[in-house]
Amino acid sequence: QRMTKIERLVEWNVEVLTSLLQQIIASRGGGLNDISSLSNAEWSIGRGGGTVLEEFTPIIPLKRFEAEELRARRRPSSIDIGDEAKSQLRKYLSQIAGMYRDNPFHNFQHASHVTASVKKLLARIVKVGEGNGLAASSSNNHGIADVDLADLAGHSYGITSDPMTQFAVVFSAIIHDVDHPGVPNAQLVKEKTRNAQIYKKSVAEQNSVEIAWDMLMEDEYSALRACIYQTESDLRRFRQLVVNTVLATDIVDKELQALRKKRWETAFSNPFPSSSLVNQRLEEHDDRKATIVIEHLIQASDVSHTMQHWHIYKEWNESFFMECYRAFKEGRATADPSENWYKGEIGFFDYYVIPLAKKLASCGVFGVSSDEYMNYAKANRDEWVREGKALVQHYVSKYNSEE
């Protein structure tokens, strides 16, 4: 029988996460033990009465691997995550897909599109001319383990040599808009929805983290969890990465964006700390950079349609317009989006997308991708200036004809 579009997307996500789980297990030396001793820790996380937002941290300590350890790592493709974990992963992702609402834009297809961009950017985190964990080299079928990871560890602030970090960012992309209501946070606050009263700000994002996390902690996913982490410190690091990465997708909150800008400046505008700094300070400097690079990687991926071919941009722009226009027609928005959409989009390119593409380039981590993203962003902006007014009219008449 033919698979539905959603089932095909679920399968694709299963494959992406399975290959990262193989790398996580390889980085631990291949062992998979029962983690029932962690059940108290699992249960306590996120249940302390605070909000997800309060768990945010500006510096996540990355795991460090010795060069020897990296060279001795087993080939990930030789690792079997086991039938039980694989079927739990498939069930988990199917459940997540089903918890995405039927929104024109914020749906499971968007989540998968963002995931594809995250995967691509992670695969490009690399010294020019070398591979990394997510990038298969063309010289052989495995590619993955034949890269000298030890050479890479120093370059990308430790992101490439730690598969758990990569897994957490890809996982976050998949779950980042689960249960999204199809209206912005400000509207939820205005409507005083239950979630808005609990979370106050970053309402949709905090809700997505809680839903996805609580489900992952259910008994039926224990084999999957054992693949992700084997110790309490890895469990806590995984949680921290998911919290930070999903919260980074709230780009509307002015306060959060200002703090993010400040962290970027601390990390990248300052010259590299002098060698007289003790190792610990150097590690903290690298961890701060890695943490902020991850935030920008998910932000760029969340709007990656603006930095891809014009026809992809146009398709997603239309979907987002339809979602906002539907909210307006349902009385869940004060302004008619069609009145400001043309100008608003130019502003979005000038004040958000293009500066973001510049940051991708200036952190020096993504190689050629950042040029590619920047070139598409500028081309799409120019094309929008020419075509946008007519397109908005087209969107409106299309919406009205489908009603």
Keywords:
single chain; mainly alpha; 17 helices
Overview of this protein structure:
The chain is built from 17 helices and no strands. The protein has 403 residues and is mainly α.
Q: Level of helix content?
A: 55-70%
- Unreliable stretches, pLDDT < 50, 5 or more residues? 127-155
Structural class: mainly alpha
Query: Roughly how many Å apart are the termini?
Result: 32 Å
Topology, number of strands: 0
Largest sheet: none
Strand content: under 5%
Task: Give the overall silhouette.
Answer: globular
The run of helices and strands is: HHHHHHHHHHHHHHHHH
Computed Rg: 21 Å
Mean pLDDT, to the nearest integer, reads 89
- Number of helical regions: 17
Set out the fold topology.
Blueprint: H1 5-27, H2 39-44, H3 67-71, H4 83-99, H5 108-124, H6 149-152, H7 163-175, H8 185-190, H9 194-199, H10 203-216, H11 222-228, H12 232-247, H13 254-269, H14 279-302, H15 310-329, H16 337-362, H17 368-402
Brief sketch in words of this structure:
By secondary structure, the chain is mostly helical. It has helices spanning 5-27, 39-44, 67-71, 83-99, 108-124, 149-152, 163-175, 185-190, 194-199, 203-216, 222-228, 232-247, 254-269, 279-302, 310-329, 337-362, 368-402.
